[in-house]
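As agreed, record minuted below.
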Amino acid sequence: MTPGRGLILAAPSSGAGKTTVTLGLLRALRDRGMAVRGAKSGPDYIDPRFHEAASGQPCPNLDAWAMSPARLAQLAAGPGLLLAEGAMGLFDGAPPEGRGASADLARHLGLPVVLVVDARSMSQSVAPLVAGFACYDPDVEIAGVILNRVGSARHEAMLRRALAPLGLPVLGALPRAAGIAQPSRHLGLVQAGEHDDLEAFLGTAAQLAAAHVDLDALAALARPLPAAPDLALPPPPAQVIALAEDRAFAFAYPHMIEGWRAAGAEIRPFSPLADDPLPEAGMIFLPGGYPELHAATLAAGRNFLPGLRAAAARGTAIHGECGGYMVLGDGLVDAGGTRHAMAGLLRLETSFAARRLHLGYRSLAAAEGPFAGHWAGHEFHYATTLRAEGRPLFAAADAEGAALPPMGLCEGAVTGSFAHVIAPLPEGVPKADRPV
């Protein structure tokens, strides 16, 4: 198999439109018959599903904070052209030094960066901006520029003239375009499966990319991806795993599920929203998602919550992450203030009536449960905990190693927390103490 090649698509800051640019490029290259696939830097559940829709290929998360360089290389490996979309600004990462930034991903994989610049409010000032990024770190190569949200042909000419002395190729200039903004909600974009007309959106983005970006020049900048190492993965938490999978429980990392499958586990998906009977399994895994938007449906189902209670009574291991954790509690209060009774397997009450952002990388340590040991994770939710009683699951620390209050709860074989587990803790990340 011919080794794949790759590029990083990054921006000076969030909000530059790099997701829409990336999606347009993926679909435009696919439409030309090129083998192309996407990847997403950092802990993101939503953008990768859009990448998959645009390219027709799986999209891994490549998290340079939570994953070892060997794991990054393993997940990035594959045929064709890999376009890895960065997160936030190119050098923005976790405190204190910015570990996990898109620049880290470029360094680990040895890939050049194409800088997507939002040019809507600048002209000649684009040159010092790009020059600063190009010169900031000699280990991060800025190989080209895509100008986004350009106002007119005259505006484009001014931008190109300002950039010409830098000697960096301007690969394209995308105009401001109405109708391709993506809808959002409190955790980010609406999921790909909920987009009213995803194919029309991707088609429009692809037409813009094909008309205004030199796709051949873009592809020619890509460099070979590092060889995939023979890396042993953690054993699965059970040989048969029942996986909740629908719009309420959509935030499972594919690399985690595929890693379990590669290690010999059988994954049995089921839909709580469809009130599917729970599959027989050694462990039931409830990922995060948007259960607060579907709490009434989940509470009214004949199979889901009763099935969880029956499985817990049999001693089946059950683990919930974020939204799945809230469903394992006694009750969930939706944004309108209505309380919905949940599974009642953990002494937990949560609410979206009073929202508060909880965000950041987490170093986790557990003495029991399916994630015993040291793990890297991430927390991102707006739920307020009204009550949490019982034995904690994880000791936790933030990205700088500062101790945090314990996370999650254990009750028999039922465990859960707001943390999304990403990977075994890599070297260089401070360990949280194991809970006593």
